[in-house]
Specification:
- The chain is mostly helical.
- It is 73% helix and 0% strand.
- The chain has one domain.
- The longest helix is centred in the N-terminal third of the chain and has 35 residues.
- It is globular.
């Protein structure tokens, strides 16, 4: 019986879930903030423009699913309660809906960019960080036991990967994902209306894409490119 590996693994799972909660809180707050800019204050009035994860948490999508994935050693993924948006209140419903849809994934890309910058700066300033980052991003061995620097590398690595996964997944142009809101704003209204009706089958399409590995085909080259940038 080796308690230390168990303790470290438990800390890894806890950090994974904590980073995800922060990422989805930023994502949903970005939707609400952009909606308020366009005239719909529903999310703001409900207190949903906040980084307090308790306002956004979905017990299954924000806690159970990511914890199971983390324990299984798989990439952590999850979701929060969607922020309520009323496009009819927007000054320009078409453009407003596009920007509200884009705000969530863009906020995750901004978090990923910040984590990437942090890893690059840390790698250039602290000897041995490159190896810690390489082990973290390629082997899933988060260097939590490597002292304070290892803990920072672990958090930044988690932040980088989780936010890239969230951004890319949400940009899939299938209703009800954010990518569909962007596409609908670019389509002629009659075509957009037909496209919106796909939402009845959207989740089935999304699950089919995941099952067929289509999401991995899209995501893997992005993660590989980011890894090369970090350790190159």
């Amino acid at each position: 019986m080796q308690p230390m590996p168990l303790v470290i693994r438990s800390l890894e799972v806890a950090l994974d879930v904590a980073v995800l909660l922060f990422a989805v809180s930023v994502h949903e707050s970005a939707h609400g903030w952009m909606a308020a800019r366009w005239g719909d204050t529903t999310a703001r009035d409900l207190g949903r423009i906040t980084l307090n994860p308790l306002k956004h948490v979905d017990p299954i999508g924000s806690l159970l699913v990511p914890a199971v994935l983390a324990i299984s050693g798989m990439p952590v993924f999850g979701w929060a309660k969607p922020v309520p948006v009323v496009p009819a209140r927007f000054r320009d419903p078409r453009r407003g809906s596009m920007e509200v849809s884009a705000a969530g994934p863009l906020s995750n890309l901004a978090l990923a960019g910040g984590a990437l910058l942090g890893l690059l700066l840390l790698k250039s300033a602290v000897p041995g960080v490159r190896e810690l980052v390489l082990a973290s991003l390629t082997q899933g061995q988060l260097p939590i036991g490597a002292g304070p620097v290892g803990l920072v590398v672990a958090i930044l690595s988690m932040t980088l990967v989780i936010n890239i996964v969230l951004a890319v997944f949400n940009l899939i142009p299938v209703p009800p994902l954010d990518g569909s809101g962007i596409v609908m704003g670019l389509l002629p209204p009659p075509v957009a209306a037909s496209y919106r009706r796909m939402g009845r089958y959207g989740l089935l399409v999304v699950f089919a894409l995941l099952w067929l590995g289509a999401f991995d085909i899209i995501l893997r080259p992005i993660l590989v490119g980011v890894l090369r940038l970090v350790i190159g």
